[in-house]
Amino acid sequence: MKSTLLFAALLIYSSFTAPDTVITRFTAPAGYQQVKATPGSFGAYLQSLPLKPAGTQTKTYKGAIAATDVYTAAVVDLSVGSEDLQQCADVVMRLRGEYLYQQKRYNEIVFHFESGFRCDYMHYAYGYRYRNGGWVLTTKKDYSYPTFMRYMNLVFAYAGTLSLQKELKPVKNPDDLQTGDIFIKGGSPGHCFIVMDVVESSQHKKQFLLAQSFMPAQNLQVLQYPSPWFSMDMRSGILYGELIDKTYLKRFEN
After folding, report:
1. What is the pTM of this model?
2. 20 to 30 A from 168, CA-CA: which of 41, 82, 108, 251?
3. Nearest-CA neighbor of 35 among 180, 155, 168?
């Protein structure tokens, strides 16, 4: 009887326990303090994303352990899908799209294909579908989440680092780095990292957590090499670590 009551109590406790996030799991280095993003901002959304249990391995969309798993500090609890679509730039667009969708800022969900085509969510939600380089009305209006994800999969198929790089604005002052910023270099292949959290010292030096997807599509992983805290003052031996530089630092408009 006691064991049954204890089990029930644990279930109730776990249902009210907040999920682990980058803020709760990663302690700021000595001499640094965590920089909380503005409530309601893209940065605050990233800081609040739930993480999978500590020790979870990074896996590809097929369920195999990813080649990048050696760099895993944590895995974000975000679906990767069943196709090889959600790669490095795609997961950044996914995060931005999810953030705007949750806030019902539907008219701001816009991404460009590498061809230059403007793929906006409003057209898709109103029943238009992409056909032969343009929009064609084929179905009824639908703002549901499954339809939103079908829109995002369309974006993943036709957009990439080259198109995303053009949509982002350069961060003119690297000392202004903030959660939600992106290190990106467009190309075939290109690559990008997204800043998940920032800490700052009393001397205004900053360190930050980075996350990425990769090829083939994989879980969104928070990185470490060997520490999870990166800095533009120190070169990293991680793959594409040369991009962790002010030259490649960009962000979304708002």
Report:
1. 0.91
2. 82
3. 180
Statement: residue 1 has pLDDT above 60: no
Q: What is the pLDDT of residues 109-152, one digit of tens each?
A: 999 999 999 999 999 999 999 999 999 999 999 999 999 999 99
